[in-house]
Amino acid sequence: MAENSGLLDEIKELKRKRNALIVAHNYQPPVVQDIADFCGDSLELARLSAKTDADVILFCGVDFMVEMAAILVDGKTVLNPEPSATCPMANMVTVDDVKEMQKENPNARVVCYVNSTVDVKSVSHICCTSGNAIKIFSAIKEPIIFVPDKFLGTYAASVTKRKDVILANGFCPTHMLIKTKDIEVARKKHPHAFVMVHPECTPDVTSAADAVLSTGGMVRAAKERAEKEFIVGTETGLLHRLQKENPRKRFYALNKNAVCPNMKKITLEKIHNALLNNCHKVSIPADMAKPAREALERMLSY
Ligand code: 13P
Ligand code: SF4
């Protein structure tokens, strides 16, 4: 950390001068989590963006998250330290795919996971995150077209016992790396540990776990549960926060290769550059932002 201290001081000074807020997703590299004012899951970051009074939001995550903040804050400066950081799953479904699904299922409501492009959000009725998908599925009366994550959709449909969910074919390449074999091995090694996995994991993995939670849900479970050991089935960046906030408990990655390369593109140098030069501003064209905001605000009203 000592080698970063000059850079950290400069970032703190720029932050103060510009009345900037640095927010980071739970998968960000440890140094980025540590400089952030707030770390959270997608739902927490969306809520925070909607109500902050900072003039500048510097968002450390992947593009759909930064875009979501830009849609919700309207009128503030939103900076993306690394515009090439994207979510491959979000890019797996296009507006044309959604329109095709709607043509085949004209009575269905389109629910899109926030891990989606702005254009897909703009043609969706409502968004959801891994933290509120079950609530949103329960609230919708009509059949549901769910995009893009087939595994989150399968999980939410099974919990809500819905048979009328039409799924797209998207998936997260990072969570796909986590296998049931990893759970078997980890349980043998740590028999008293609580196994929690993300709903982007495949159905065989979610059914073999003790709990299926968003990253924010895992943070709360780690704090509140009596167990002293946790096996964590999600992107490995979350372990830094879990260990930092619960120094007396032990956390083990279910699969150490579950690393999202895009989340790891953010560095202190890129944060410094964005704040200093006011670069990589994100703004969404009004015709796209308006319907996408409606889908996000509908979600936030739950
Ligand atoms: P959370 O909303 O649970 O943090 O998940 C976001 C994500 O991209 C998972 O891969
Ligand atoms: Fe997208 Fe998966 Fe990375 Fe999350 S972990 S941002 S879903 S690729």
What does this structure look like?
By secondary structure, the chain is α/β, with parallel strands linked by helices. It folds into three domains: 2-86 and 263-284, Rossmann fold (3-Layer(aba) Sandwich); 90-171, 3-Layer(aba) Sandwich (Rossmann fold), CATH 3.40.50.10800; 178-253, Rossmann fold, CATH 3.40.50. It is built from 14 helices and twelve strands. The protein has helices at residues 5-18, 30-35, 42-51, 63-73, 95-104, 118-122, 133-139, 150-159, 180-189, 203-208, 215-224, 238-245, 268-277, 286-300; strands at 20-25, 38-40, 56-60, 77-79, 109-113, 126-128, 144-147, 165-167, 194-197, 211-212, 229-233, 250-253. The strands form three sheets. A four-stranded parallel beta sheet has the order 2-1-3-4, with helices on both faces. It has a four-stranded parallel beta sheet with strand order 6-5-7-8, with helices on both faces. A four-stranded parallel beta sheet has the order 10-9-11-12, with helices on both faces. Strand 7 (144-147), helix 8 and strand 8 form a beta-alpha-beta unit. The model has no long low-confidence stretch (mean pLDDT 96). It binds 1,3-dihydroxyacetonephosphate and iron/sulfur cluster (SF4).
